[in-house]
Amino acid sequence: MNWLQNISITCFAASYAVVFFLEISRVFFDVSFRKYVRVGFAAAGLFAHTVFLILQGKLVLGSTGLWLGSWFGWCLATAWILALAYIWISARQPKSVIGLFLIPLILGLIGLGVGFGHENQFSPMRAKSIWNMVHGSALLLGTAIVALGFVFGVVYVVQSRRLKHKSPQSRHFRLPSLEWLQKSSEYSLIISTFLLAIGLVSGIAINWTNPADDTLSSGRIIAWSNPVIWSSGILFSWLLIVSVFNFCYQPSRQGRKVAYLVIASFLFLVLELAIVWWVGHATSDSNSDVAQRLEIQSVSEESHSVVGRLKI
Amino acid sequence: MNLQVIGCSHHQSSVATREQLAFTQQQIKPFLNNYYSKFPNSEVVLLSTCNRTEFYTVANKPNSVPGKSELIEFIAEQRGIAATDINSEIFIHQDRQAVEHLFSVASSLDSMVVGEAQILSQVKQAYKLAVETNQTAALIHRVFQSAIRVARRISNETEIHTNRVSVPSVAIGVLAKQIFERLDNKKILILGAGEMAEETLRYAIHEGGKDFTIINRSIENAKQLAAKFDGRVGDWAELEKELAAADLVISATGATKAVVNSDQFDRVEEMRKQKPIFILDLAVPRDFEQSISDRLNVYLYTLDDLQKECERNRQSRQSHYPKAQKIIDHEADQFFNEIQRRSSGSTIAQLKRQADNAKQLELDRLMNRLEGVSEKQKSEIEQSFNRLVNKILHPPLKSLQTESPQVSGGLLEALKKLFQLGD
Questions:
Q1: CB atoms < 10 A from the CB of A5, how many?
Q2: CB contact under 8 A, A180 and B181
Q3: A205: closest CA among A130, A269, A281, A287?
Q4: Which of A55, A262, B62, B180 is the most exposed, fewest CB within 10 Å of its CB?
């Protein structure tokens, strides 16, 4: 099975790229066997993707839990879930060209992982508890499902706009029904809220069982001063409010509004991930970074006071 | 094979003539039995639909099928009308033209609405009745099975059947499906109880619609329609409440002005809590004020919108016509080649047998005269005779196989006469 070791990112990225081009070609002309080729390439890409994640991406499923190595692994794992979702959607909605919206997201995540993911390695210490595993898995799945909801939301807006303007549906550019898109958006909102709640609770549990120095010194379980913590709190609160609002106030879960809500949730998520990545949350150098930043801050404060004294 | 089709269709016959010649399913079998009593040497299929009545007659021997005037006399007699009344509106196609016509009819290229799917099942039904009446109808089998195969091929290889072209079918089969995933759990409200409302409701039921309420100014008409489709009759005074509950509204009243205005819809919208609604306003003048269309989650389509969609689909179907016509030409060639191959087969076999007999006689005579010929030399001589016969027969047989059916038919007759071959 040595050949499995030779599977590279190019293998599955190229497969997904072929799927994307086949999706584009659907808009222009019909070929009866294309759907088999398209799903075949997607399945081949998913297989290569799976093997790569297991062998090269340092994804480990064992007694110590699930470990993604770095942001690189995180991005690839999210792309993997979306690729799986693509095959599921292809089976459920074979005539729709929803892949035109979903595949670029998968390719974008792979590109993001390759471009920036190697910089921040997750600390291996993080994989040592069940809470870490739950934390990582829930956030990973939640992220993927919010992204999927975003695709459903965008497609809903496109389809609804087309129907409102009475533009004819091209035989080559079919989208799922509004009802299906609305239901899928709703489910993605509820499931992602649930998963992010698990992620947040497990994060608290991690701090409880293995408190960091700053939380110990402050005597608090949650370090609210940490941008990752407060931004996650805001994201979760947003999703929770949206879900509760959805449940209690009927108009919010009707038609375009639910689509706008899932799109907004995705934008929130992108912001949150940007903060997490910038701060270097869960990475091996995050503690030293924080220490370094604190040192710089104290030096800066000292120099300010010196300058102040000199002025006086 | 001698094939002809005599009949009338929407292309050249008036509705009056088509009505006079139309047959119900129950009338077809007695007609076919009467036909066989009078013309026992041919086979017949009667195709009768709203837009055409056609009699396909076929026989192996020449002059076995009745001629146009003879058949028109017979049909007129059967229908109890004067032959002269219908004579001028009847068409006739023979042989290749008749085959191409049948292929076009079965593929719905000859239909009033090109690409409609119903005609193929009507052709199959006509074929079935013909076979039930005359179970030994071998020629009918050959012609009609080819026609059904051609129709399927055109359906698979062209997009002539893909786009819907009637207003109700576009409204329900195309647009409603883009909004709703399924109709069986949707509340359908029908305003009006006329023909258009009924036709659209029929499509909605066909697509799975189950829960429908009919509201009409005349409650009697609403009750009749509701009874026909097992629906519920609503009260016109409760219109706003019914609109608030509905997912799909089919409106086709005969009202002279809008029955739902913007103010009324404000109240409906409040009750709906922005639930999406699909409104098919099929009335002229419109039943819903145009401004209602601007509301969020309201998808309002008027008759004009739907007719534009139908027209686009019709044009799309027409654009596939040349490709379908090419398939028909090709299949008609194949059909006649096959017929020719079958009919020339026995003549070719006779010719070969005759040549073989002559060769054998001459070979035996030569062998008796020659002395001291070794086995090897005998074999050489025999092979030489065989080659000679093959070389003589090869050019005419090749011409017979490669020429068009029309030319090879003449060649076949010439061959029979020249070599004095039997039928």
A1: 10
A2: yes
A3: A130
A4: B62
Take residue A290 and report the two structure tokens written for it: 């924080």
Residue A275: count of CB within 10 angstroms of its CB: 18
Q: B384 is written with which tokens?
A: 């030489």
Between helix A99-116 and helix A71-92 the angle, nearest 10°, is 170
Structural domains of chain B sorted by starting position, each given as residue range(s) with its CATH number in brackets: 2-163 (3.30.460.30), 167-304 (3.40.50.720), 343-418 (no CATH)
Are the beta carbons of A283 and A121 closer than 8 angstroms? yes
Kindly report the nearest CA distance between residue B180 and chain A, in angstroms: 5
Other C-beta atoms within 10 Å of B108: how many? 25
A179 to chain B: which residues are within 8 Å by CB? Answer: 179-182, 276
Nearest CA in chain B to A183: B181
Nearest CA in chain A to B294: A164
For B253-296, give the DSSP string.
Answer: ---SS-SB-HHHHHHHHHHHTT--EEEEE--SS-SB-GGGGGST
Minimum mean pLDDT range among A158-167, A172-181, B73-82, B400-409: B400-409
Rounded-to-10 torsion of CA A255, A256, A258, A259: 130
What per-residue confidence (pLDDT) applies to A228? 65
**Per-residue pLDDT, B300:** 94
Q: What is the pTM of this model?
A: 0.68
- The residue with tokens 């979306």 is A82
- Under 8 Å CB pairs connecting chains A and B tally to 54
Look up tokens 């693509």; give the residue: A86
b/e burial code for range B153-168 (CB count within 10 A of at least 16 → b): bbbeebbbbebbbbbb
> Is B50 an annotated catalytic residue?
yes
CA dist B185 and B194 (Å) reads 25
Check whether B345 has a pLDDT greater than 80: no
CA dihedral B320, B324, B326, B331 (to 10 degrees): 170
Q: CB B178 to CB A250 under 8 A?
A: no
CA distance B139 to B145: 10
Sign of CA dihedral A206, A210, A214, A220: positive
Predicted interface score ipTM higher than 0.85 = no
Which stretch, A113-117, A265-269, B292-296, has highest mean pLDDT?
B292-296
**Which contiguous run of DSSP H or E holds residue A307?**
helix A286-311
With an 8 Å Cβ cutoff, are A257 and B163 in contact?
no
State the smallest CA–CA distance between residue A39 and chain B in angstroms. 22
Bridge partner list, A174: A96
Per domain, the residue ranges of chain A are 1-122, 124-289
